[in-house]
Amino acid sequence: FQGAYYPGGLTPDTLSTFLIEKSLSLYGGFNGNEMSRDERNWQMNPVILSGDLARNDVPGDFFQNKTDNARHIVTVVADSTDRVTFDGITFTGGNATDNGNLPVQMYSGGAILTVSPITVNFCRFNNNFARTGGAVAVLPDSKMPCYFSNSLFEENRGTSQSAGIFLSEQTGYIRNCSFNDNQTQRGAVYL
């Protein structure tokens, strides 16, 4: 249903994440009166997955009140051939570290960190941060391509490789996506 959801339950910390370990499809845009998935409206009934655990972020400010945010809003560790679909979801407030001396999993993918194939459709990513893949980082374990379509990546930040999507040794297809007002040294998409 529409609303904001935060990882970690009653005792969240920066390592809290929505952990997905098998093939799954997650659809947003429902208000509870629909009879079918086609009746949902993801813009009118937003489902927000937020890493802002203390609910105190300042929009557009990547430094103030961020140290208590989740490092990854969603972590996908399903089998390398199990596809996970996100459709009609907003991801905001993910804040992975900027320390490049740590393992790649710690500084990549503020909104989504995945080692499995994902499909992203009609999603919005904003105000997420990571050294690599400010919004999404796809690490090299996936055996199948990732698909991104009809989605908006705006006001995300990466200090090294990509504020939007980082595909590490992966095949990816990006169609009809917008990348606006992101901050990075190496582009909105890094392949």
Features:
191 residues; mainly beta; six-stranded parallel beta sheet
Task: Please render the helix and strand layout as text.
Layout: E1 3-5, E2 18-20, E3 24-27, E4 47-50, E5 74-76, E6 84-87, E7 89-92, E8 112-114, E9 118-121, E10 124-126, E11 129-132, E12 136-138, E13 146-149, E14 152-154, E15 157-161, E16 165-167, E17 172-175, E18 178-180, E19 189-190
Describe the structure.
- The chain has 191 residues and is mainly beta.
- It has no helices and 19 strands.
- The chain is globular and about 50 Å long.
- The mean pLDDT is 93.
Total count of helical runs of at least 4 residues: 0
In total, the number of strands is 19
Which structural class fits the helix and strand makeup? Answer: mainly beta
* Overall pLDDT score: 93
> What is the global morphology?
globular
Helical content (DSSP H or I, runs of 4+): under 10%
Q: Radius of gyration from the CA trace?
A: 15 Å
N to C succession of SSEs? EEEEEEEEEEEEEEEEEEE
Poorly predicted regions: none
For the largest sheet, list the strands in their spatial order.
1-4-7-10-14-18
Largest sheet at a glance? Answer: 6 strands, parallel
End-to-end span in angstroms? 34 Å
The percent range for strand residues is: 25-35%
